[in-house]
Amino acid sequence: MRQAAVTRKTKETMVAVRLNLDGKGKASVKTGIPFLDHMLTLLGTHGLFGLVVKAKGDLAVDHHHTNEDIGLALGEAFDRALGRRRGINRFGVSYIPMEEALARVVLDFSGRPKLVVRHARGSKVAKPTGSHSAYQWGDAEHLLESFARTSKTTIHVDIFAGGDFHHTCEAVFKALGRALEQATRRNPRVKGIPSSKGRL
Question: What is the CA radius of gyration of the chain?
Fold first, then answer.
């Protein structure tokens, strides 16, 4: 069973994540940060995962601790659900457009955590407005970095075009979900651990 349940408790936050890698895209996310709820729901839906995320944190201070700990717990859930990573594709890549925005996510469950984010010349992530204004692009990057660390994954995010904050983030999180689905998928041609070294 490629499933995991992770609970992360600190004096600042409490995060609970349940993950089924072989789900059907049903996601339930309640973090207290509405924009992040939306992004993680997109990840679960387009990754075809069974995903439940519940979090309570010191949002009266700001959402930094909650955002970070969600990334750490989610990454740990992927790491546990994959186990030794036997029989998976290991690599994933996805391009996703969202109106004027275009993002690519390329990842490798390599055992070597790394996040690299690049913006093509002329592309930008505009500052959020309205109800999204509390959640910034730096928060999204920090969550992805935390996820990469505990899932032990190399992740490259390329933003080729963008302007609207919501659209750009949506393209990135949908692409991440699709790339994760591809990388975690079982491949009957892969015998054992997908590495010439024999381990990841």
Answer: 16
